[in-house]
Amino acid sequence: MWFDTTAETYGEELTTYSDFAVAPGDRIAFTLSWEPSHKQPPALPEPEQSLEATEDFWREWVEHCTYHGPYREAVIRSLITLKALTYAPTGGIVAAPTTSLPEDIGGVRNWDYRYTWLRDAAITLSSLLRTGYREEARAWREWLLRAVAGDPENLQIMYGIAGERELGEAELDWLPGYEASAPVRVGNGAAHQLQLDVYGEVTEALHLAHMTGLARNDYASLLQLKLIRYLEKHWQEPDEGIWEVRGPRRHFVHSKVMAWVAVDRTIKLIESGDAEGPLEEWKQLRDDIHRDVCEKGYDKERNTFTQSYGSKELDAALLLIPQVGFLPPDDKRVIGTVEAIQRELSTSDGFILRYPTEGHGRGRRRPARRRGRVPRLLVLDGRRPGHDRPGGRGAEAVREAAGAAQRPRPAGGGVGPAPPAPGRQLPAGVQPCAAHRHGPAADGVGGVRRLTAPPRPRPARRRGADPFTQAGRVTRTRPPGTVRCMSTRRRHTPAHRHHRAARPGVARAARRPPRGRRLRGAAGAHGALGARGRGAPTSPPCSRAASCC
């Protein structure tokens, strides 16, 4: 890891510090670069050029958003977040860029979400497709085909961003965790759970890609048929469900509904003439699943669907029943389910709990990310929040709009630039930067480097190119007087500490290693400790000064 800055830095107790004042119009750059320790140091970054390339990339990307309705700025901001969760080299979409953030401060439900859940990725993909971003859909479809490798019998609910299958879970007991919420985990032991709803989410995403005009892929159609062959044999089995319950498997209603979705979308694929399969046989399968859910997953006394067969508990995932087309939104069973969830799972701050049980499941107390589900369903069945009586044109209008969104678009359609905005505008929430001012030149020591040269003219960049891959094609030279130092893998003890003698005007640099662990892949500590501009070496001068320091 390399840390570069235009500011003065100094090291104390294996930690890098920088004290500086910023006035209106001043700009101070801080950059981090990473390169495997056995390779040459990364090119010295040019912050202004990188920032400009990044802004250009995102401006151009958001221009392709085809949504022009209410709250467009909020929609674009959400789309930027979803795009930022994609890994460009493979097309994988991670559920989150973090691990071990607790569901409750001080709690132990701290999971690693830095993987590609098929369900989460499929839902993300559907949002991108509905707003005109088909290239991301194509990349994820290719990732899916590589990860599954034509073997739905061994389909996992999640994979690594490059399609890795082994995601063993471990606890890093030397780390305190966020706000002392231990343990810190890497890997995820839920990778091999059975979650039947995933088949429905994946099939729905493939179906939506097909309906929005994405180029046909025969392997994707073949995979979809294989998924239904698997469901045909296993849909009656209990599973862990959408919330990844770590306890006995159950017949979750949401899982059965999504199995119905998988069969329904595949039937539509066959009826469109883009695939071949036993149409009548699968129509019967679709009816069997529907009948099974309505008979075993519905509580007639309370007029609501339940979390699992025979249970009395509710589940926020039941709000998806009308949205996937399992039942119409004005069906009395759907209305009863919405009202029951409002009554039993709503929180005082407007969120909906995922489910209220005290079992072994993950996140029993964490609110579901479904704040908009209930208002949306009130609109679907013809109501508005605060109105009690269903009726009117609500359901019909929404069904018409949904039908229009599902109808095939002509090849090449669906991705149109938004009307040009006056002038160059940053995405919502991004503030423009003031003019750059460079600080005085100085040498850098250890893992800290001083950026001393003014920015060079920006090289030509291919339109639409990813700034992060494009940056690697720019040849840079090291400004005179700039010193760079590779990281070291040895433990930072006095016997192994490398340094340079302190002298006025020379920045000091150090990195604190993880508690109780060897420092691997982090910036090395080749600087002497002590206050800036004074002090004496505490061990012999570095023997590698000519080549390293």
Q: What order do the helices and strands come in, and which of them pair?
A:
Blueprint: E1 2-5, E2 10-12, E3 15-17, E4 30-33, H1 47-62, H2 72-84, E5 86-87, E6 92-93, E7 116-117, H3 118-130, H4 134-148, E8 158-159, E9 170-171, E10 185-186, H5 197-211, H6 218-234, H7 253-271, H8 279-296, E11 298-299, E12 304-305, H9 332-344, E13 352-353, E14 367-368, H10 373-380, H11 394-406, E15 448-450, H12 467-470
Parallel strand pairs: 1-15
Antiparallel strand pairs: 1-4, 2-3, 5-6, 7-8, 9-10, 11-12, 13-14
List keywords for this structure.
GH15-like domain-containing protein, globular, two-stranded antiparallel sheet, 6hp_glycosidase-like_sf, mainly alpha, 6-hairpin_glycosidase_sf, three-stranded mixed β-sheet, GH15-like, 549 residues, 12 helices
